[in-house]
Amino acid sequence: MKVLDLTRVMAGPYCTMVLGDLGAEVIKIEKGKTGDDTRSMGPFVNGESACFMMINRNKRSLTLDLKSEKGREIFLKLAKKADVIVENFRPGVVQKLGIDYETVKKLNRGIIYCSISGYGQTGPYSQKGGFDIMAQGMTGLMSMTGEPDGRPVKAGIAMNDISAGVTAVYSILAAYVHKQKTSRGQLIDVSLVESGLAWSVWEAASYFGAGVVPQRTGSRHRVSAPYQAFKTSDGYVLVGGANQRSWEKFCNKVVHKPEWIEDPKFKTPHDRITNVDELERRIEEVLGDKPTHHWVDLLDDAGVPGGPIYTYEESLQDPHILARGMVQEFEHPVAGRLKTLGIPNKLSETPGQIRRPAPLLGQHNDEILRDELDLTDEEINKLIEENVVTREELVK
């Protein structure tokens, strides 16, 4: 699969990174001199942005002035040979540049053209600029995240950006299957708002099923209990007693309170969620006597899902995380040897790979123009003189 990547920052680059991890050939098209906005975001390793390097592996970089006629011509020549184009400009920009879906479709009937934006390509908010935090606010996520008596809190990660990237990935793959069957491409419209909203399944069940507006519940689950973090003598432990069997094991083998099983307040899952305040109080009266590791061991022995709450550093050092290959290393031409997140899906026949580090700005200009478009050195030098592309040596 050949992918032209016109995206920057997070949602689009995450999508194209995943495609690259799975074997796609990704050409990242960037503006000269500055490139993707993320290149200016710290921390830096030998002058290279760690943020950029983390999300742009398995790509080649081509600097291209899309506002120039020659830059547009080069893009359309590349688009003619591509399978997929991904862009995350504000709606209307690609039309102004003359590189939109309808234009490319005339040259390449099979093009899969994915547009990612804050609010989508249509609708009354389509022209608004949309970042992750705005999408978290609009989807109601921030109103239901945090402690009940606290202020609205955003998720600890850029959840709507990543959900949009993931939505774009599976949409592109679905369109690619369709293309293989029919030779026809299509336009894909993905927004940060809708991608995040689509993940709120329990919350939708609460609202559509009972008219209940989800509120902030801390670490509690909306429909299961005990399913949350509980205080211990030295921190917190997570307990996932999501079904009746786990609840009974928890009572018998972890807290040694078999009488709770027949208590009318806790007898059924509905009873436990209805009386979750008292349930939490009683459980913490028991768990507060011992440290977290004591309860984690008991939960494991009883076969009840549970665990600690790690810092991010502790997570990346956990032996299970390491054994699953979620911390890997790569060699960067400027930053040197660095660690990065691994690939989460383990495919038996076509496993993902980190084949190349994130590119330097314009690193592959000559290579792409020569190999993909058969341009001569003389023609490439002419484009550089006219600032249509930027010579990589001048970028560093």
TrEMBL record:
Superkingdom assignment: Bacteria
Gene3D superfamilies per record: Crotonobetainyl-coa:carnitine coa-transferase, domain 1 (3.40.50.10540), formyl-coa transferase, domain 3 (3.30.1540.10)
Alphabetic keyword roster: Coiled coil, Transferase
GO molecular function list: CoA-transferase activity
InterPro entries in the record: CoA-transferase_III_domain, CoA-Trfase_fam_III, CoA-Trfase_III_dom3_sf, CoA-Trfase_III_dom_1_sf
Pfam families noted in UniProt: CoA_transf_3 (PF02515)
Coiled coil: 366-393
Annotated protein name in UniProt: CoA-transferase
Lineage start: Bacteria, Bacillati, Bacillota, Bacilli, Bacillales
